[in-house]
Amino acid sequence: MISRNTRDLISVAFGGLLARKVRTVLLLMGPVIGVAAIVAAVGLTDSAKGDLKAKVAQLGTNLIEAKAASSFGSQNPTLPKDAVQRAEQVETVEKVASVVQLTDIIVSPYPQARAKYETTPIPVVGTDTRLPYVLEVPLTSGRWISKADNDNAVRAVVIGSGLANELGYLPGESRTIDLADKPYGVIGVLGKVELDPSLDNAAFISFASADADFVKEDILPTKLYVRSSDGTEQVTSDALRVAIALGGPKEVATEIKAEALELAAQSDRQLQLIVASMGLLAIIVGGIGIANVMSISVIQRSTEIGIRRALGHTRRTIAQQFLLEAMVVGFIGGILGVMLGAFAILVGVWLSGWVFVLQNWIPPAGVLLAMVVSIVAGLYPARRAAKLEPLETLRLG
Question: What is the pTM of this model?
Answer without folding.
Answer: 0.61
